[in-house]
Amino acid sequence: MPETPETPGQGHSVGHSGSPHDHSAHDHALHTHAGDESARHDHSAENPHSHDHAGHDHSHAPKVTGGNERRIFIVLVLTAGYALIQAVGGWLSGSLALVADSGHMLSDAAALALALVAYRVARRAADEAASYGYHRVRVLAALANGAALLLLVAWITWEAVTRLRTPVEVMAGPMLVVAVIGLLVNLIGAFVLMRGEGSDQNLKGALLHVIGDLLGSVGAIGASVGIMLTGWMPLDPILSVLVAVLVLRSAWGLVKASLHVLLQGTPAGLAPEVICADLEGLAQVAAAGHVHVWTLTDERYVATVHVSAADGAEPLDLPDLVRARLAQRFGIEHATVEVNRAGELRRGHGPESA
Question: Which residue stretches does the UniProt record annotate as biased composition, category Basic and acidic residues (predicted)?
């Protein structure tokens, strides 16, 4: 069976006497953990193998940047402040587009606050309760943001249908002024977030919320100008629905991406067959298989892989060699490599006894 990746943040070294080795006397290699008591690691005779983690850095320190956190805080202040102004403007003018966008912005403010909390929690170091750390709190926050957007889309659509059946008088002038201010606020917010650091689903979720607000402001401007020119009140709910459709597309993409990470789906471009073929291109590797790749967060890849040594190759050299290859070719920063005896490994299936 593939070995479960060891506790992150611990320098890990394992020594075995060779790849094909005898467990009849129940020799046990010792795992030496930095800062911990030595723990015994024992392998059954049914699946003899050797593996090594020597020289491999298992640090899973959070890749959370203070810059991203500050950017979200700035946008939170802008969003919450303008949402209140927009709510008052929408109520006074009777515009559903403004009221809908105000509700959208208030939900965004809550989502941004949730994102900030996620950053704080993600900075916590790994412990016994969470050996990989708390990075996925950010992914959960992104999922919550996407779900909130989907609920908002449903509410806007319901209100729009109601207003199409029973048109409501809209004061286009005040509506236009508030919408233009909202557009400026959202442009500033989008600019701040687009300058964020790294690939971060939490930051992307916040940016999608702001872009949705920006589209809402554009829709409100279009509706107000159209009403001023034509006097046709259904323009307001119609444009609200169009904005909701655009937000729906972005929200669903965010939910889908977050679920893929949480379900430990294989990252795009990292198919196990491709990785096996690449590893088997190494002169020291006779076969590779039983590859599993997933993402700890949207930007951190983790893998387990089995390999067997080619004739003349030193089995104990394979783990470091394979890890270096995975990092260089596929960006996989944390890999557990298990070395099997020659002839017992089948591509994609691991040991025949597995």
Answer: 19-60
Structure tokens of 103? 């509700």
pLDDT digits (tens, 9 = 90+) for 189-207: 989 888 766 556 667 777 8
Q: Can you give the residue range of the structural domain that contains 83?
A: 66-262
Across the chain, mean pLDDT equals 76
pTM for the structure as a whole: 0.62
Residue 154 CA to residue 173 CA, distance in Å, equals 28
Cα of first residue to Cα of last residue in the chain, in angstroms, is: 6
279: enclosing H helix or E strand? helix 272-279
Q: Average pLDDT of 281-287?
A: 95
Evaluate if residue 309 carries a pLDDT over 90: yes
- Closest C-alpha to 193, from 172, 177, 214, 179: 214
- Flag whether pLDDT at 305 surpasses 90: yes
Ramachandran area for residue 331 (φ above 0: left; ψ -120 to 50: alpha; else beta): left
Q: Are 18 and 317 in contact (CB under 8 A)?
A: no
> Exposure of 147 by Cβ count < 10 A (0-12 exposed, 13-18 middle, 19+ buried)?
middle
Out of 262, 287, 302, a domain closes at: 262
Q: What is the pLDDT of residues 85-121, one digit of tens each?
A: 878 877 887 777 677 667 767 777 877 887 787 777 7
Residue 8 resides in a domain:
no
Measured in whole angstroms, the distance separating CA 177 from the mean position of its chain's CA atoms is: 37
* Angstrom distance (rounded) from CA 232 to CA 164: 11
Phi, psi angle pair for 160, to nearest 5°: -65, -45
Same domain (yes/no): 275, 346: yes
CATH of the domain at 273: 3.30.70.1350
Task: Tell me: do 287 and 258 sit in the same domain.
Answer: no
Share of the chain above pLDDT 90, in %: 22
Name the domain count of the chain. 2
Distance CA 206, CA 212 (A): 10
Tell me: do 142 and 212 sit in the same domain: yes
